[in-house]
Amino acid sequence: MHWSDEHGDRSPDPLTAADTGSRKIWNGFRIRQGGLPPKTAPIALTHFKSNGSLQFIFMDIRTTIQPFVFFRNAIFAILCLGFGLWGWYDYSVKIPNLERDCAAIEIAKEEIKKFETKEQTTNSALDASDKEQWNAAKKVVEQITARNSGAPIKPSAYDRQMQMWLYIIGCGVLGTPYFIWPILQIAKKKYVLQENGTLITPEGTFSKAQISEIDMSRWCAKEGDRRSTWTATVVTSDGKRIVLDDHDFKNMHLIIGGIAHGFMPDIWTAEGKRIDEQTPNQETVDSANQSASDSKSVS
Q1: Element housing 57 (H / E)
Q2: Residues 74 and 184 in one domain
Q3: How many other C-beta atoms are found inside a 10 Å radius of the C-beta of residue 260?
Q4: Is 31 found in the same domain as 106?
Q5: How far apart, in whole angstroms, are the C-alpha atoms of residue 46 and residue 83?
Q6: With contact defined as beta carbons under 8 Å apart, do 247 and 65 qualify?
């Protein structure tokens, strides 16, 4: 078994309990007997000491906007902007042009009909002036028909109003900011759990001693409001309640897990999972590390 990072295998077999001693705790993260921190613990880098042992250097846990929240809102914002521009084009260009073409082709058709009637009534050929006007009217009909790929259809009375209220205002003016605003609001909020246990939030900075408890009653709950199951609430010593939301903030589950594991290590893991929900593979690794530690201690 080898421990490796994204650049390839750079380490020997993981450290054993004999190398690291009994279980250690870093900021609420309980390091396994095998000497490795939880896989989600924020590791900046690893390097070998002069004696050949592997050293872990920890960094603060920082949140960013959840990728699915960013892309979902960005896609909807782009769609709304597209519909808004489409509505503006129809309202300002297409529909007015279509109305002008419909009016012009009606006048041209009336001119053609007038000269045809005159020719039939007089039973004589049109004079040069009449023919010129007749040919001009026919040319107008041909041009408008070609431009609209057929005879233009007159827009209904409510077409422009629909483009204005549904697309320009509804999608463009209101819809686009509606989806962009949450991205800006989430992006400017920062949550940090520092190495010493200090929690930095938009509501303020709280040392480890100022955090009285964390309410995990809604975290991953199977009943009730589904949206609230993404949240946990930190309670400070002065009674302030700070909601930590993993739905909107990436890495928030590590902050929630780190604090919950510090208060309730027998219930919650550093990843924010219940102890009884560990995967079989994780239980096997922990059991193997414990057995190896026990065997080495006996020997």
Answers
A1: strand 54-58
A2: yes
A3: 27
A4: no
A5: 50
A6: no
